[in-house]
Amino acid sequence: MNEARGGKSTAIFPADRAWDREGRGSPHVGVLVGGPDATAQHVEYLSLIFGLQMIGSILAVWWIFTHPTGWVEWSAFASGYVIINFGLSVGFHRYFSHRSFETGKVMRTILAVTGQMASIGSVINWSADHRRHHAFTNVPGDPYAPRVDGHGRPLKKGPWGFFMVHIGWLLDNTHTDLKVYGKGLADDPILVFVHRTRYFWAIFSIVLLPAGWALLFGGPEHVIGTVLIGGCLRTFIFANGVAFTNSLAHDYGYQNFPNKDGSANNWFVALLTFGDGWHNNHHDAPRVASNHVRWWEFDINGWTIHAMEKLGLAWNVQRRAKAKPVPVA
Length: 329
Ligand SMILES: [Zn+2]
Ligand SMILES: [Zn+2]
Prior knowledge:
The protein is mainly alpha-helical. Helices cover 53% and strands 2% of the residues. It has helices at 18-22, 36-66, 71-97, 105-116, 123-135, 159-166, 178-181, 189-196, 198-217, 223-247, 267-272, 279-284, 300-310; strands at 31-33, 174-176.
């Protein structure tokens, strides 16, 4: 976990950008540059996202076109997708980042573990990064924004800018100061445990679970295909769905609530993330449990939280004030 190391945090970006060239110091309150924690995140993202998930997905596509696949492989894909979406969208996003509802210790643990199974950052770092995204949306200080990179430098529209805001930001050397954004995260023993065991949950989700599924419902001949499709491809497509929330749903779509942060409602992202793509609705009221505003803006994650409330598994569920959306242009 990150700690402030050397140099003191400043409220503005230093004019000479010495922190940038030297790789030390802090450019912004809540932003740390370099150090072992940045390295640890690089190793994690390179091995799990760019390695296991991405390379495995390329192999999965090859496998799909060269081998027969059936319900064993694709049911592992579908059920695993539902599980990691629940953990990341309901857990990491709406619960751990925004506290849009309260829940008990068991459900808290389930949300942390199933979200960790998405393998796109630890529960602590993902949620702290996301809090920082809302604090500085699309201005210097935002870890992933279409207009600025992690160092606060302007990003131009185009393939490079798109890549940076989509997944390139994972590889810059800035990271979130947990002293500023880690309250209720870095001091929670359950989350510290899940953070420390994050590589295990990645292997469990991407390799062990699909392999077990294949052996249980198919046979040894289904193991490789199910790991590739139900493990690597499933987590990588979902990771891109989450990344599209930054890259697409901050530029492409419509706004119910006009604001300057550029957040947009994007149906394609909403489809991939079961409702998180209604991102303008979300930025308008980040703590609200449901993104549903207009009748077509289905929000399975919001419905899940309200179903949990009915079952007594969630309480203090945050609801939207009756603000009227503007007519869609
Ligand atoms: Zn956003
Ligand atoms: Zn959010």
